[in-house]
Amino acid sequence: MPTFKYIARSRTGEKVEGTVEAQDRRAALLQIERLGQVPVSVFEGGLGAPASATSAGDQKFFKLEWKGSGKARMGLREVLLFTRELSDLLASGMTLGNALHTLSRRKVSRGQDRIVTELRDQIVQGASMSSALGQWPDTFSTLYVSMVRAGEASGQLAAVLERLCHHYERVQEAREKVLMALIYPGIVLSMGVVTMIFSMVFVVPRFSAIFAELGSTLPLPTLILINMSHVLIRYGWLMLLGLFGLWVLARRALKTPAGRHWWHRMQLKMPLVKNIVTANSFAHFARTLSTLLANGVQVLQALAIVEDSVGNVVIAEAVRDARNRVTDGATISRPLAAGGVFPPLLTDMLAVGEESGDMTSALQHIAKRYDSDLDRNVKIFTTVLEPVMIVVMAFLVGFVAISMLLAVFDLTSGLKVQ
User: Fold this and answer.
1) Residue 395 lies in a domain
2) Secondary structure (3-state) at 155
3) Cα–Cα dist 164/170, whole Å
4) pLDDT tens column, 197-214
């Protein structure tokens, strides 16, 4: 029976080397997994060697030239695709090192190619997947790294990656719902602004020149419109520069802790917007906590990860306060309810799960409940916002048209009298 040499990671993340006898490579992989280890490289005796015994050319190929994370990063869609492909390759029996090497040969984008290549190099050199992912915090969140670490410890990395795929698919779906709700109002607003600028810069000046030649007294709305047009033409570049400066200052202010706290608190007070923000945050809280607990992450560590990923500073503070009042083995529903941020429905459903000993299922039901709330609130938001935007733009365009018509009517009436 053939002998296979292998490099793997133990449940504690330590590097392990050994040999197993099996009929083929897939059977060898199964034996290694039964030992509670995560295989990284498997070579049949005499046909290959571990990375430490490769030729000079291979060592050069797999040599890690660490350049720091720099600005290379992957978006949520790219992370989801990477996780899905890696999960499928591992589930098919491929080792982690070979799976990453296969993905590194696919030219997708500059940032993703660099990240996957360096992940492959670190894994081949003996690093754990979780520690390699931790070098890219802008791409792989604390939740992602913690889940992978739990998968390495349990020897079920492929299954954990599959759960991460489902998690990020739901997160992406929630984001797309909000973005799709803003597309139509954004188009209406953009077209309205373009129409107003065109009218003020090209149409109104021509009418004002005609009115000046006739020398008649213009109605007040027409005078206001002509003066607004003159100001926009003369000082438009200053106004544009000022708006750009305000936008830059606002972005910098919102990146500060005080600015983010103010903005997130305002979101929780805005009509319609607060319902979308809270439903999305509560669904994300329940889904993330359920995913972590289902993979064996301790409650306090899971709450710390949820605090970093919930998305709203005010809600994150409530999670942190609850975590500070929770000890291992104690319930978390009461501290969450005491904070006053989480609604009674959520904490009551969570308390039922704690009493039954099935918090994971309770959290999944909570996530579904607030996903439904998110759908409903997004529909309400778009239903209200669309007519409001249309009325506002109709008022602005109508003001321009009526102001011009009033002046024309005055001129024509004066000509009839003469």
Assistant:
1) yes
2) coil
3) 10
4) 888 888 888 888 887 777
